[in-house]
Amino acid sequence: AGDRRALARLISRIENDGQEAAEALSALYPHTGQAHIVGVTGAPGTGKSTLVNALAKAYRAQDVRVGIIAVDPTSPFSGGALLGDRIRMPDVAGPDGAFIRSVGSRGFAGGISRSVRDIVKVLDASGHDLILVETVGAGQSEVDIMRLAHTCIVNMMPGMGDDIQINKAGILEIADIFTLNKMDLPD
Q: What is the pTM of this model?
């Protein structure tokens, strides 16, 4: 029914790979397929979280139910993750805003974690109209988001790369939309 505490508990079970999570996902599956999924990716520091905040704020103003999954890198040394992207989303946090869930990549390459697909299903089944998935600061070959999202946004900023970069395969090929952030920089 969209209860935030129930969502949070189920997502935690999904992340911990429990049997209860598999049963819940099976029960929820018939209720999926309604949400539009938007992937937001790009290099670290290009302003993905700021863009997600702005998009969510605009959609919330139209009374659209928004779910956000923000994936942060997991340390290969400590196994921990800061899960701090939500700090950059002050306009949509809170009980009347978007449902925001930060998750660690848990060592998975590709820009998202293994659990993200299932978390998207849970948010979809709980009635979220739009699900924004912010990837880890993705590199050139981290394109897993294209297999999950209906729309892929690649966030860029001036001064990153050169003329050859645009001809290389990878992340630039998956974009439905390119956004250019930090236009106030000299480049």
A: 0.89
